[in-house]
Amino acid sequence: MLFKSGGVAAAMGVVALAGTLFATTSIPALAQETTCGTDRNIDIAEMTWPSAAALAHIHAMILGEGFGCNVEVVAGDTVPTSASMLSRGTPALAPELWTSAIEEPWERGIEEGIVVQLADAITDGTVEGWFIPRYTLEAHPELTTAEAVIEHPDLFPDPENPGEGRLYSCPPGWVCELSTSALFEAFDMENKGWNLFSPGSGGALDASIARAFTREEPILFYYWGPTSILGQFDAVQLDLGPVDIEAYTCNTDTDCREPAGVSAYPSSPAVIGAAAWLPEEAPEVAAYLAKAGLTNAQISSLLVYGEENMADAAETAENFLRTEQDLWTSWVPDDVAERVLASLG
């Protein structure tokens, strides 16, 4: 998707919607107009997961309509996007780059001045672990840790084996399936009356969680954030104890035959990464991006709209710009905010 500058049209009081020109209230001229700063095309990586995809379109609309940049949203994923940024300086921007999987080459690229980290995309870090509903915790306040929950399989009955508890794991083939299985073994849960349930797919896991919350039934499940599920439902993350990197590494490695022990999930850094030329040529854009981090809760909340309305990433981004104006307008100069708002009609 290609976004061209809407600044001139907006300033003239004209907005293009669905191929039709509509007159709007003209925007008062400001003392100094904020511009993009570069004539280069700013390509933004749209990753394959919902939060990163929505963020790509939020930035594309603000840069295109607000700063007057030539912006293109391109397909991306962690490894190929970072490799291309490091070798060719493109894409120019990765709005939610999880750097734990590319730690060494990414750090080397920063040291060599090839790429930069403008901000944390998720300001309070990513979330991964085991969850229960808040209403279950309120009914049983002692269930704050995984060990406490494991002592009560009767409170989380397996629908197919009511006398045993059920832990909802990850779909087959996902890395989190390995870690959940390893923790299940490390906690000796089978001998304590638990079954490890594979949902078969991400959609099936979501459906199981949604069904339990809708019926206000207890459920113990693995999940991660930011996601629409954690935005829709009030889930509480259990304390799995401290992070043991050696144990966690083994628990996520197919070649590590025996679970190394119990470890909480480390929070993976997710950054706003950019080619080094972007802040050099477009400092105003870089200054905006340096402020554009969001919390887990904020990202999960914006994803709820997409889930409930079957909206794509672009529609989810537009809804965010319409409904969270107090938030995102604080990131940009006033004239940029006015042009973006004008483009939204």
Explain this structure to me?
This protein is of the alpha+beta class and 345 residues long. It folds into two domains: 2-125 and 270-343, Periplasmic binding protein-like II (D-Maltodextrin-Binding Protein, domain 2, 3-Layer(aba) Sandwich); 127-251, D-Maltodextrin-Binding Protein, domain 2 (3-Layer(aba) Sandwich), CATH 3.40.190.100. Helices cover 41% and strands 20% of the residues. The protein contains 16 helices and 14 strands. The protein has helices at residues 7-11, 50-66, 78-88, 103-111, 134-139, 146-150, 175-186, 202-215, 228-232, 245-251, 277-281, 283-289, 296-309, 313-323, 325-328, 334-343, and strands at 2-3, 14-17, 20-23, 42-46, 71-75, 93-98, 115-120, 127-133, 157-158, 161-168, 194-197, 220-225, 235-237, 270-275. Strands 8, 9, 10, 11, 12 and 13 form a six-stranded mixed β-sheet that branches. Strands 1-5-4 form a three-stranded mixed β-sheet, with helices on one face. It is globular.
What's the end-to-end separation, in Å?
20 Å
Cα shape: globular
Going by CATH, what is the homologous superfamily of the largest domain? Periplasmic binding protein-like II
> How many individual β-strands?
14
User: What is the number of domains?
Assistant: 2
How much helical structure, as a percent, in the residues? 40-55%
Question: What structural category characterises the helix and strand content?
Answer: alpha+beta
CATH architecture descriptor of the largest domain: 3-Layer(aba) Sandwich
The CATH topology of the largest domain turns out to be D-Maltodextrin-Binding Protein, domain 2
What is the CATH top level name of the largest domain?
Answer: Alpha Beta
Mean pLDDT: 89
Multimerization state? single chain
Tally the helices: what do you get?
A: 16
How is the main sheet built? Answer: 6 strands, mixed
Q: Helices and strands, in N-to-C order? A: EHEEEHEHEHEEHHEEHEHEHEHEHHHHHH
Strand content: 15-25%
Contiguous low-pLDDT stretches (5 residues minimum) are 4-30
The gyration radius over C-alpha positions equals 23 Å
